[in-house]
## 1
Amino acid sequence: MSSSDIYRELILDYYRNPRNFGKLDPRDIDARDSNPLCGDEVEIQIKVSADNKIGEIKFLGKGCAISQASASMLTELAKGKPLEWAKELSKEDILKMLGTSDLGPARIKCALLSMKVLKSGVYEYLGASMADTVDH
Ligand code: FES
């Protein structure tokens, strides 16, 4: 099996058996976005732990195998990490997570959708909690 076959198998496995699929209630972060090219969606919900880490994380969504597998893998990778870690995530980190570097431009958008959602949720939360600190 070539390495690109292995990555395809892995993506299909996460697509068919998504880890951390579902909702969190209560939750501190709830962010969603869609890929404008196709309308596919990813929503990420997070419960932040007392030490500002990603305590629990789940995702919801509908779309292609890459967008949904990437979201599921990202929840596994993110669990237990500091919120600051999410701010530093890069395209390279996501490609490494997916085990490939040869996605075309359209597929890159699919792969990066969940990172975009995670970052926007974390930034919004950190912005809000900073505003809380200023208020009190
Ligand atoms: Fe829609 Fe991949 S085709 S996110």
Note: Residues 105-135 form the longest helix (31 residues).
## 2
Amino acid sequence: MKVIITGDHAGMTIRNEIKALLEEKGIDYEDTGCSCETSVDYPDYALPAAERIASGEFDRGIFICGTGIGMSIAANKVKGVRCALTHDVYSAKLTRQHNDSNAIALGERVIGPGLAREIAEVWLDTAFDGGRHANRIGKITTYEDQ
Ligand code: RB5
């Protein structure tokens, strides 16, 4: 699995925590987040990263900002990206099983690094259930293709 991780100036601590997790798990990743010496605009990071998931260069993406909201809104504008704003472990599991999410967004001003790590780990380790859920995602894909 190849993962792209990105974030703005408000997501540095969680970004570093998740990078440590990816390294521990031996997952290949690229960090395209800001160097964060100054305030930046989250779409400048979310949109290019989401495009690299949509193109197939990366399997999954982890998007981090202050609330996770801006990153998730921007990432979901890119066709083929299903980015779940996820601040609890249950949702992290279910969004893989039911939504086949290929990205998550996390908000560093909402949750701490310990919970963010647990969310990311469950999300990385959970498979898509397929079946009726694949049919539902197919309806989203059909809409995107119109
Ligand atoms: C930056 O202040 C903040 O607006 C951004 O990180 C994010 O929370 C936007 O949704």
Note: The chain has one domain: 2-144.
